[in-house]
Amino acid sequence: MSKNNKGKIYLIPTPLSETHTDVLPESALKIVRELKYFIVEKAKTARRFLKAYQTNIAFDDMVLFEINKRTLPEEIPRFLDPAAEGQSIGILSEAGCPGIADPGTEVVRLAHKRGLEVIPLGGASSIVMALMASGLNGQQFAFSAYLPVKSGERIRQLKSLEQRSKQFKQTQIFMETPYRNNALLQDAGKALSPHLHFCIASDITGPDQLIKTKTIAQWKKQGWPDLHKKPTIFLMGN
User: Fold this and answer.
1) In the chain, helix, strand, coil percent, each to 5?
2) Is residue 85 located within the same domain as residue 112?
3) Would the pLDDT of 3 be above 60?
4) Residue 227 belongs to a domain with what CATH number?
5) Do 149 and 221 contact (CB within 8 A), yes or no?
6) Same domain, yes or no, for 136 and 224?
7) By residue range, what is the domain housing residue 50?
């Protein structure tokens, strides 16, 4: 129970790969093990994560609120009601950090409006790890999340991101739904300049991890890797 009689909102990173589960330091694990309430994308995945860390709360006593594309907007405010009663709440992403390309953002925004303390816990972020390993500009960068689904619109967006990268000397970071990764690569080959540096950071921390930065010309000469259904972050810059 929080000293000010309000619960805290903890943002809890989750593993990027099932083979790399040690993402939380012991100080964060102590907090997670004592939480009863969680806001999650998928209850099944969340329970698997919590089971791995041997929480002190019995599973039958835990309360998991799901927030995803099927969640009605009017349902979300009640997810934070336990905090008004002094109960702290954990927010879990499916992979990586909550609030970044993640529906947990809505909950965090509402928590601030209610005057609740929001505490991020350290852990794996595929976006940050990809940037770290890319060799591209880490002083100026922008994240654009998902690009358009339709090929023509996606090509226009890729060209726009390249222009932005040149204009602001800024690394552009984006991602795709894993089953559309290969289509994105084909459009990147059509849309982007041969000399542009393009980084593929796939299955980070997983058994098939691939992190390579090459020019578009080099990628096309070598051949694009098969990224079908592999979680991947893409980066571009000069």
Assistant:
1) 35, 20, 40
2) yes
3) no
4) 3.30.950.10
5) no
6) yes
7) 9-120
103 & 173 share domain: no
- In this structure, what CATH number is given to the domain that contains residue 95? 3.40.1010.10
Q: What H or E segment, with its residue span, contains residue 221? A: helix 216-222
Reported confidence tier of residue 94, pLDDT bands at 50, 70, 90: confident
Residues in the chain, overall count = 238
The pair of three-digit structure tokens given for residue 227, joined into one six-digit string: 């990224």
More confident residue, 6 or 27: 6
- The predicted model scores a pTM of 0.83
Domain boundary among 120, 153, 172: 120
> Tens digits of per-residue pLDDT, 112-162?
999 999 999 987 789 999 999 999 999 999 999 899 999 999 999 999 999
Closest CA to 186 of 234, 119, 237, 138: 234
